Amino acid sequence: KPFTKGSILRESAVIALFSFALIVLIALITFDAADPGYKNIKSAGEVNNYLGVVGAFFSSFVIYLFGLASYFFPVFFLVYGLNLIDRKDHPKSDVQSIAIKFLAFVFVLLSTCCLSSMYILVSWVPQDSGTGGIIGLEINRLLSQGLGEIGTTLLSSAIWIIFMPIFIGFSWLKLVRLTGKSVITFVAILGQFTVR
Q1: What's the DSSP call for residue 1?
Q2: Who contacts 185 (Cβ-Cβ below 8 Å, separation ≥6)?
Q3: Rounded mean pLDDT of 112-129?
C-alpha cells in the first residue's frame, strides 16, 4: 500500500508520542528531591535528573501535584500512540474515542492519587505532598469527610477498576480467563514432571 499524507502524519505523531512518553518517564524516574525544582528553588549547580534543570523542575512539579500517580503520564502518551497505530479512518469516532480515553485517564489519575495518599508511604516523595500529591491529599480529605475511610477506599477503588480498562484498552474478564488458562496449563505441566 503506498504511503499517503495521512499515514505519514500518523506515523510521525506516533513517534512523537512514544518519544514524549520516554522523555517524561526518564524525567520522573530520575527525580531527586535535592535538585532545584518547584518547592526547592536554588541555583542549578549539580543536577541529578537526567534531563537537567528542565527535567528537575518538571518532575518536582508533577510529583508534588500528583505523587506516584504522575507515572501514569508516560502511560497516557504511550496509550495514545498505540491508539494512533490501530486507528481506522473514521475521524468522528476517533474524536469520541480520544475524549472517552482522556476522561478515563483523568478518573484513573485522580483515584490513584487518592488511594496513594491513603495507603502508600515512600520516602523519596516530598513529605508535604505525600505519595498522592497535593491533589490526592485534597481528594482524600473531601471524600473522607462524607464517606469515611472505608467509603473513600471503596469509591476510589471502584473508579479505578471501572476506568482503567477504558483508558488502557483491555477487559478484566479476558484477563481473568487468560490467568485461569495459564494457571491450568502451568499445573498440568507441573503435574507431568511430578509423575515422572
Answers
A1: -
A2: none
A3: 89
The yes-or-no verdict on residue 3 having pLDDT over 60 is: no
Q: How far is CA 30 from CA 33, 109, 124, 168, 195, in A?
A: 10, 21, 11, 25, 50
| Spatial contact of 58 and 8, defined as CB atoms under 8 Å apart | no
Largest CA distance in the chain: 68
The pTM of the whole model exceeds 0.85: no
The cell 481473568 sits on which residue? 176
DSSP result, 122-164: -TTS-TTT-TTHHHHHHHHHHHHHHHHHHHHHHHHHHHHHHHH
Plot region of 192 (φ>0 → left; ψ -120 to 50 → alpha; else → beta): alpha
Cell numbers given for 188 = 498440568
41, 60 contact by CB (below 8 A)? no
Cα 156 from Cα 141, distance rounded (Å): 13
Nearest to 135 by CA among 70, 39, 65: 65
Rg (CA), the chain: 21
Q: What is the model's pLDDT at position 80?
A: 86
